[in-house]
Amino acid sequence: MVGQLTTHVLDIAHGLPAEGMKIELWRLEEGGEKKHLKTVLTNTDGRTNAPLLQDEELKRGVYELVFFVGDYFGEFSENSPDPVFLDQVPIRFGVSDIAAHYHVPLLTAPWSYSTYRGS
């Protein structure tokens, strides 16, 4: 089995995949410093076009996905509150098995979110 990290975002306020949401991927290094690995945008299905990490890119350790929820929902309304209730949503998680598939989805609205380890 090939290890990989994937994600997708569902816009539960509009009942749609969250197309065009910016996502940053970070790795937490020794001493607590964060290393930026990549920035991607979701496609029409609310997913990335390719796994965020796969094969030898996926290493044991702690990662963080940052979802730019505030920017995404700001595109739907000219009357967004200032400041928005949710802006950047970070999800920090650990990878212990580099041969496993780690799927970290986000279900979100302008006022809430949830996540889980998917398959």
UniProtKB/TrEMBL annotation:
Catalytic activity from the UniProt record: 5-hydroxyisourate + H2O = 5-hydroxy-2-oxo-4-ureido-2,5-dihydro-1H-imidazole-5-carboxylate + H(+)
Boundaries of every Transthyretin/hydroxyisourate hydrolase domain copy: 5-118
One MF annotation (Gene Ontology) recorded for this entry: hydroxyisourate hydrolase activity
Top-level taxon of the source organism: Bacteria
Enzyme class, spelled out: hydrolase
Pfam families for the chain: Transthyretin
Subunit structure: Homotetramer.
Family: Belongs to the transthyretin family. 5-hydroxyisourate hydrolase subfamily.
Function, in words: Catalyzes the hydrolysis of 5-hydroxyisourate (HIU) to 2-oxo-4-hydroxy-4-carboxy-5-ureidoimidazoline (OHCU).
Protein name, entry field: 5-hydroxyisourate hydrolase
Protein's organism: Spirulina subsalsa FACHB-351
Lineage of source species: Bacteria, Bacillati, Cyanobacteriota, Cyanophyceae, Spirulinales
Gene: uraH
